[in-house]
Amino acid sequence: MSNQQFFVLVIGCAVVTWVPRVLPFAIANRLVFPKKFNQFLNYLPLCILTALLVQSLLVFREGQWPLVKIPELLACLPALVVGYYTKDLMKIVIVGILCIALLRIFL
């Protein structure tokens, strides 16, 4: 594969990734949604983040109950406390990363 083909491939991948993520926001900003629909949309980020959190804290195996990942759960608790009091995503991420790093070092 030549450099030019590789460059075209990277640009193509960027466009394919960008369009479905950005285009809906550009279109939705110009539309006026009903009040009930806006209330529903306000809960989507919370639902998505909760689903991601639960998925990262549990191990799912077919035919068994989910198992809790103890280090991830222990790192999650201080991050949740920081999130409750600060409501700052950067602080939450930093606390979560520091906690999981410290747990992996010492456990």
What is the topology?
Layout: H1 3-28, H2 35-57, E1 58-59, E2 67-68, H3 70-86, H4 89-106
Antiparallel strand pairs: 1-2
Helix pairs in contact: 3-4
Descriptive account of the structure:
The protein is mainly alpha-helical and 107 residues long. The protein has a domain at 1-31. Helices cover 79% and strands 4% of the residues. Strand 1 (58-59) and strand 2 form a beta hairpin. It is extended and about 45 Å long. The model has no long low-confidence stretch (mean pLDDT 91).
Distance between the termini: 45 Å
Strand arrangement within the widest β-sheet reads: 1-2
Low-confidence stretches: none
Structural class: mainly alpha
Radius of gyration: 20 Å
The major sheet is characterized as: 2 strands, antiparallel
Question: Helical element count?
Answer: 4
Helix content: over 70%
Shape: extended
Per DSSP, what share of the residues sits in E-state strands of 2 or more residues? under 5%
Topology as a string of helices (H) and strands (E) = HHEEHH
Mean pLDDT: 91
- Count every beta strand, where a strand is a DSSP E run of 2 or more residues: 2
Pfam families: AzlD
Protein name: Branched-chain amino acid transporter AzlD
InterPro entries: Brnchd-chn_aa_trnsp_AzlD (IPR008407)
Transmembrane segments: 6-28, 40-60, 89-106
